[in-house]
Design a protein that fits this description.
Layout lengths: L7 H13 L6 H8 L4 H13 L13 E8 L16 E8 L8 E5 L5 H7 L6 H18 L7 H13 L4 H12 L7 H6 L3
Antiparallel strand pairs: 1-2, 2-3
């Protein structure tokens, strides 16, 4: 909200919609809900709010943790076999908790699937809960956002993690988002765009 030209009421309404609307909100939907004239304004607001969704002091996952890697994105026409992944983004997932439930979650974009890269993200690979989290992420991504640029994928993964951790408490999500926003440095529209350069 630093140096914003929009009223604070609009920002609070946006934060409320982003944190409580299930299963999330696209930039187009946010533009309509807030009555904004430009899609770019809604898109930038969403990215700024996503940037505030991860607590800087969060602790490492512990106890029983499952980890895997996966591709996120759509198929590209005309490609066959493994090349069909086209513009898909390689991601890593780690989730903790007993086998009966999904606990705390971490998602990250990975540079590659080489051993050194994977070892940075994890020390061993276990699967069932991780696959359930991946399925939930893919359903959310395809249902709400349709397509996401690989350059901006980390912000969407952060949003999903934020939603996963607060899936049963939407009002607490709104309050947490406002509080976490104070813990992050402000980011400009130009900085968001430059990430894709």
């Amino acid at each position: 909200m630093h140096k914003t030209r929009l009223p604070l009421r609009t920002w609070f309404w946006a934060a409320y919609l982003v944190s409580t609307f299930q299963p999330g909100i696209s930039a187009k939907q946010l533009q309509r809900q807030l009555g904004l004239s430009r899609h770019e304004t809604a898109w930038a607001m969403l990215h700024k709010l996503r940037g505030a969704m991860i607590a800087p002091e969060r602790t490492l996952l512990s106890d029983e943790v499952e980890i895997d890697e996966f591709f996120l994105g759509g198929y590209e026409e005309g490609l066959k076999g493994g090349r069909q992944r086209g513009k898909k983004t390689l991601c890593g997932v780690a989730i903790e908790g007993p086998r009966t439930r999904l606990g705390r979650l971490r998602l990250a974009v990975l540079a590659d699937a080489s051993r050194p890269t994977l070892l940075q993200f994890t020390k061993e690979q276990l699967l069932p809960r991780a696959h359930r989290a991946i399925s939930n992420l893919k359903a959310w991504m395809h249902g709400t956002h349709r397509g996401v640029s690989p350059d901006h994928m980390p912000a969407y993964l952060d949003e999903f993690v934020f939603r996963h951790h607060r899936r049963g408490t939407p009002m607490a999500s709104f309050q947490t988002l406002l509080g976490l926003g104070l813990a992050h440095d402000p980011i400009t529209y130009r900085e968001i765009i430059d990430r894709a350069a």
